[in-house]
User: Fold this.
Amino acid sequence: MRRSLSGGIVALALLALPVVSAVAQETGTPVFKAPYRSFDQHEFGASLSDPGEGAGIALEGFYRFGKDKNDFSVRAGVADGDADNNTFLIGGDFRTQVVSYSEKFPLDGSLTLGFGGIFGTDQEDVFLLPVGISLGRRFDIEGSTTTFVPYVHPNLVPVFGGGDDLQFTLGLGVDVRFSEQWAVRASGGLGDIEGVGLSVSYLR
Assistant:
């Protein structure tokens, strides 16, 4: 069963946590994922993020579609680079629900897999392969169509190019669906790269 207003308060409290760092998803931006989608068939939208020190503001567009417990997305955009040299971002991901809440385990969970790259004229290309698990729950506000999904999203992120590396991040986020057609998502986290992200999506 979905929770009531108390769940919304939990979600807002999550956003108030001090966000000190967040590491890459498939395009190197701090945009994390809830354990399930908020749309029926597909969605499209935009993400604005600040990956923190060493990277500029990033603007990305995305499209996601789903079937059964699975969904897929593609995203692409641009980020400010050093000396006015922009970097280009492109990637995609897959999400499938693997855990449903019960009396023994109070959260829903999904496996997430992604692949993407960061490309620039004055830097070596970098490729990322995030693998994670997203855990959270959906909550209703009584007397409203608004729903909240607070979640945590830990990831291991192998990085290839630009000095191969293995990074870890614990993403924190909340998805807020205001109506049948619009949702807003905010995320940040603890990990190797500072950053916060905000997304707006149109749902169908």
